[in-house]
Write a structure and sequence with these properties.
Helix content: 25-40%
Number of domains: 1
CATH class: Alpha Beta
Largest sheet: 5 strands, mixed
Distance between the termini: 44 Å
CATH topology: Nucleotidyltransferase, domain 5
Order of helices and strands: EEEHEHEHEEEHEHE
Radius of gyration: 16 Å
Strand content: 25-35%
CATH superfamily: ATPase, nucleotide binding domain
Number of helices: 5
Shape: globular
Length: 184
């Protein structure tokens, strides 16, 4: 069974292909801006390289943010469209969850252009946003984990026990759109 993970929450476009929960191929391209120019050609190139089509995909995984406003919107829209049109399950995870897959540190950090998102490992749903300067101060007194290379190969296993979602209910997480988000 083929599945695909799509992530554009920061400067990179990451698209991974899995077969029977094993990573088969991955594209990780830094683009900083203009994700919309590159994501579909990269997706098509990855499928062609692996000699499959979108119709071979049986599950879609997506990082729904928080992160870059435009990147998250684009990523979630493409993932939802694929899941809906192919009539396959979709599962989402936050960029904080993605950072947590391969670590045990107290605070998880996800970078964004103008700052960072931080969550305590035991309360990942309580995300705080810090400007870059406030974050520099924060990390002088807290043990943080900055995961710049998430364990993409572990995503299917991480999501295995999460229920599939209705594609229409997968919502991007934006700085202003996170309920209970504390901004510092």
């Amino acid at each position: 069974m083929w599945s695909m993970f799509i992530d554009t929450h920061y400067k990179n476009i990451v698209i991974a292909l899995y077969k029977d929960d094993n990573i088969m191929d991955i594209v990780n391209k830094e683009v900083k801006k203009d994700h919309s120019v590159f994501i579909m050609p990269l997706l098509e190139e990855l499928l062609n390289k692996n000699k499959i089509t979108v119709h071979d995909l049986k599950e879609i995984y997506v990082c729904k943010g928080p992160g870059s406003f435009t990147g998250i919107r684009l990523c979630v829209t493409i993932a939802k469209t694929l899941a809906y049109t192919l009539n396959v399950p979709i599962k989402s995870l936050t960029s904080i969850e993605l950072a947590s897959i391969d670590n045990n540190d107290s605070y998880l950090v996800v970078h964004e252009n103008n700052g960072v998102f931080i969550a305590k490992r035991d309360t990942m749903d309580k995300i705080k946003y810090y400007s870059n300067s406030a974050y520099q101060e924060f990390k002088t007194t807290h043990k943080v984990f900055e995961n710049l290379n998430p364990a993409y190969e572990k995503i299917p296993n991480y999501l295995k026990n999460k229920p599939a979602e209705n594609p229409h209910s997968v919502k991007p997480l934006y700085i202003k759109g996170i309920s209970g988000l504390d901004a510092n």
